[in-house]
Amino acid sequence: MDKYSYLSNTGSEFLEEEYKKYKNDPESVDFGWRKFFEGFEFSKKDYSDEVIPESTLKEFQVIKLIIAYRQRGHLFTYTNPVRERRKYSPTLDIKNFGLTPEDLDTVFNAGTQIGIGPATLRQIEFHLHETYCKSFGAEYAYIRIPEKFEWLRSRMESCKNTASFSPDEKKYILNKLNHAVEFEHFLHKKFVGQKRFSLEGGESLIPALDGIIEKGSTLGVKEFVIGMAHRGRLNVLANTLHKTHAEIFSEFGGVEYEDSLFDGDVKYHLGFTADVVTEKGDSVHLLLAPNPSHLEAVGPVVEGIVRSKVDRYLKSNSEIVPIVIHGDASIAGQGVVYEVVQMAGLKGYKTGGTIHVVINNQIGFTTNYIDARTSTYCTDVGKVTLSPIFHVNGDDVEAVTYAVQLATEYRQRFKSDVFIDLLCYRKYGHNEGDEPRFTQPILYKKIAKHPNTRDIYVNDLIDQGITTKEIAVKVIKEFAESLENMLEASKKLGKSTVTPFLSTTWKGIGYGSHKDMQTSLDTAVSKTNLKKIGKLITDLPEGKAFFKKIKKMMADRQKMLFETEALDWAMGETLAYATLISEGYRVRISGQDVERGTFSHRHAILKIEQSEEEYIPLRTVEKNPGDFTIYNSPLSEYGVLGFEYGYAMAAPETLTIWEAQFGDFGNGAQIIMDQFISAAEDKWKLRNGLVMLLPHGYEGQGAEHSSARIERYLNLCADDNMVVANCTTPVNLFHLLRRQMHRNFRKPLIVFTPKSLLRHPRAVSKLAEFTKGGFKEIIDDDLVKVADVKKVLLCTGKIYYNLLIEREERKQTNVAIVRLEQLFPIAEDQLKSIIKKYSKAERFVWVQEEPENMGSWSYILRTVKDVKLDVISRKASGSPASGSHKTFERRQKYIIDTALSV
Description:
Layout: H1 12-24, H2 31-44, H3 54-72, E1 107-108, E2 119-120, H4 121-132, E3 136-139, H5 146-158, H6 167-190, H7 205-218, E4 223-228, H8 233-239, H9 245-252, E5 272-277, E6 283-288, H10 298-312, E7 320-327, H11 328-333, H12 335-343, E8 355-360, E9 363-364, E10 367-368, H13 369-372, E11 389-393, H14 397-414, E12 418-423, H15 441-449, H16 453-463, H17 469-490, H18 514-518, H19 527-538, H20 548-564, E13 566-567, H21 569-582, E14 586-591, E15 606-607, E16 614-615, E17 628-632, H22 638-649, E18 654-659, H23 670-677, H24 680-684, E19 691-695, H25 710-715, E20 723-725, H26 730-742, E21 749-753, E22 765-766, H27 767-770, E23 778-779, E24 791-795, H28 799-810, E25 815-820, E26 822-824, H29 828-837, E27 843-851, H30 857-863, E28 869-874, H31 885-900
Parallel strand pairs: 4-6, 4-7, 7-8, 8-12, 11-12, 14-17, 14-18, 18-19, 19-21, 20-21, 24-25, 24-27, 27-28
Antiparallel strand pairs: 1-2, 3-11, 5-6, 9-10, 13-22, 15-16, 20-26, 23-25
């Protein structure tokens, strides 16, 4: 079918379906397709002795023209308000399809293909041009699902992609546009030189968001969660979420916050929650997530919030829609966008489709779009998931409103992503103090003369007789006066108050005092309950053909519970989840290969041999299967960690866990750590209970898989912003995870988990330890006599066992080994008590496997002030570990020997 390669992007499934219908019954397909397939049949056979009627050949050419418009019409649109479009060839000129001007008045039955019946070529061409080449351009011909393709085609071609708004609807759109434009003008005039990241040039975003919300509410949407960077954020806060102008103006004054412990953030990063009533009277809940300047970082967070709400209390994902607002440079340049797009249809992360809106300024800070991407469009990432992409001229506000309404309908019908490329411009520089003419003099000469979108639309409505110049001027004046009144009111507000994002969700949950952070509560579970729950999660159902190793593993776990009463790491971890579920909490885990576990220890999902049917032991604890979910993630850290952070943000009653395949992979998500996990409470009063499990430990596996970079996390610790732990026993992990939910406050929890200790014969805990007490922040050495101790080793994690075993082999009794299980915050009173206990010891030493410039040492050095500490470690290095196993062993032996020498 090479000679028909031009059809390759129409959707092969659709063509195949139509061709099957034609083969079975030619009358069952539209006349145009009938002619198309007749031509196709002719091309397959040798008709050298027959003459194909010219009319049939021409019909075939007109069909090709129609398909070309659907495929390539978007390349020839008038969607750019301030620049000439790049030229593409071949064009859609009829001569490129074997048609001539003489054919323009010939009637072709192919007109039925676009819904206008038999029509002249002139009428067909006009209809196609109006549909695909005006202010609205559509990319959708690559969609492979016939239903989606046909729905879009019929919707767009039936109305020529032109909205039909009533005079009242047009006045409403003008009102939204007027508010957007005047708000920016007012800020520019009253707060000269202050950064606000103006929306000027892209003000049609406000009626666009309004169009999504209005249309969505009629289609059953009760909540929208919005994520966006700083450009236009103040305008969205004021005119979409209805944050009062007085509050916004007050923030421009730089007033202090009421809460002196709260540092806050710049006004264009803050989140907001609002309940609004639409024009049609529907109540809609709106959330604008707080975000950092890392433009696209908020995208996965928004998706996580939405999924959390769907899982917890909404009937379906039809009731909530994520809206992610991008910049053109960031959507094309930031890899996290691709990560989020790839997550869109995965069972662990899908949210029912996201409406992506791009504020396409055609410039990123000072970088022209031709230097910012290789792809034709900034939105080409949407084609990865075969999402429709609508390009629309930001100066044509009716086309914009039509585009977002169509997008909203598509999302609600097909539960998949849709992209809107809002082509506009940036009136000023990157910020209001920036000079754009340094780098784009010609473009900004055009922009300076270009009328704003509101003025263009006012003139259109005056021409249509819908409004008058006098009325338009009066409306502008009245709104400007109301802004003046709000400015005066803002001066009387006093100190600024920031209402925490999702405050209703977090009602009754505190922030935790410094003392609370250093002590634990009782998280024990009775022996009866442990055995009852343990039997449920280790019994395999009868009649299922499980893999032999699975049967043995589950039998071994039962033996731990009912015979030896000595539990390994996997059993301790699993019991933590199981007991929490039995108490009414929910547990969600995701990450690369978490279902089985990278080190084959977890086995949360068991497969039936031959069929690969799944059995999930933890779902036997409670009848509600949603109480425990675990998902293997895509090979992403940034996107997935952001998603789980968002999930935890909206679900304080769920133990939400992200596990890195190896701890060092966490560096791929460093932006989420820096901008959200460590700083969000200080910046936005945002609470979060996300748990990160980071495998860590030196076992001679080389530089890449030894260190989870403990030092990086500890460097971010301050003001009780999170908890960092490195457990050495299964029972301490058990109590730590249970403590995370039983506390009356939430903090992000970073846990450095072991690899070799997962099966280490010494890393086991007696069942009795699970039935009493709670998490131990510090574990003292109860194997030595205090009076004999000359040297005290402080350490954390796996190296404890290396030291312990060597000490036993030497039969040494004069060295104590103290484990810091919670590194941050250090349990100060407990540590002081232990140091005092060993006051007669000659030396106190911090021992670590990591190089001296890594690991916990620098943190310990500046934190532990009550005793002089030395350090024993690998020498400072640019790499975390050696690639040679022999070198590893030699260095490890040096550390152990030096630590135990007295």
